[in-house]
Specification:
- With 252 residues, the chain is of the alpha+beta class.
- The protein contains nine helices and eleven strands.
């Protein structure tokens, strides 16, 4: 792996996170607008801030522009040969599969991340979208509330971290779940830069998928938040299978 793969990731980032935004709605009725910022890209690739700043990049947007425009980048920032054991290699390897979290998710959860409950800390992450089967995770940080009118605001979140545990254990794939509130992803909509709908998807869960999610919550002492219409299905499954988990704050 070398600068070429990082440039390809920049192309992917521009198309899927700068020129596209997403509306996500959970089975608990929570909605988020999700979007990217140029300044997030170096961190997503595992490029340390002190490294690029020491080479004159005081603004990470400038580094992103140089990468995507194929300008020369010092090899201290992006080596000619990126080691397979490096953080950058792991970040870049499957980054172009990160949108699978939206469209091909086998275990779609939105984790309301609170670092106080986590042994493995994440910096500046408010919502973590996960595929607990694949091990892919995208972290998002709250950015602002967008006013629709004087009474209605929609929350906007910016992408801030990418985690790939696809080669890891079940524990690794669930490492940010312990003690957290989690929600099930229901709808994903993507829009282009003119707010024209590009794609949409609805997630539904069969009996075995519901049971698997409850077992994950049991293992991690997570609290599943879900609307009243659907909660009784999960409560029934938890009782039938003696799954000791929390649903809407109640222990079963």
């Amino acid at each position: 792996m070398n600068i070429t793969e990082i440039q390809q990731c920049a192309d992917f980032f521009r198309h899927n996170y700068l020129q596209t935004f997403y509306l996500l709605i959970t089975y608990n009725g929570k909605s988020f607008i999700l979007i990217g910022e140029k300044s997030n890209f170096p961190h997503l690739m595992g490029i340390p801030k002190n490294t690029y700043k020491s080479h004159g990049y005081n603004n990470p947007r400038t580094l992103f522009n140089d990468i995507i425009n194929r300008n020369s980048i010092h090899t201290s920032i992006v080596p000619n040969h990126i080691s397979t054991t490096s953080k950058m290699y792991k970040k870049a390897l499957n980054f172009q599969k990160s949108t699978d979290l939206f469209w091909r998710n086998k275990g779609p959860l939105a984790i309301h991340y609170q670092p106080i409950f986590s042994k493995t800390k994440l910096n500046n992450v408010d919502v973590l979208l996960t595929d607990i089967m694949a091990g892919y995770m995208l972290g998002w940080v709250f950015h602002t509330r967008i006013p629709v009118n004087k009474d209605i605001n929609i929350e906007k979140y910016c992408i801030c971290t990418w985690i790939d545990e696809s080669g890891g254990t079940v524990q690794g794939k669930e490492k940010y779940m312990p003690g957290q509130d989690v929600e099930l992803i229901r709808y994903i909509f993507s829009f282009d830069s003119n707010s024209k709908l590009k794609s949409k998807k609805e997630y539904s869960y069969d009996y075995e998928q519901k049971k698997s999610i409850l077992y994950s919550c049991e293992r991690n002492n997570s609290n599943l938040l879900i609307d009243h219409i659907n909660s009784h299905f999960y409560i029934k499954i938890a009782i039938e299978n003696k799954i000791h988990c929390k649903i809407n704050g109640m222990q079963y």
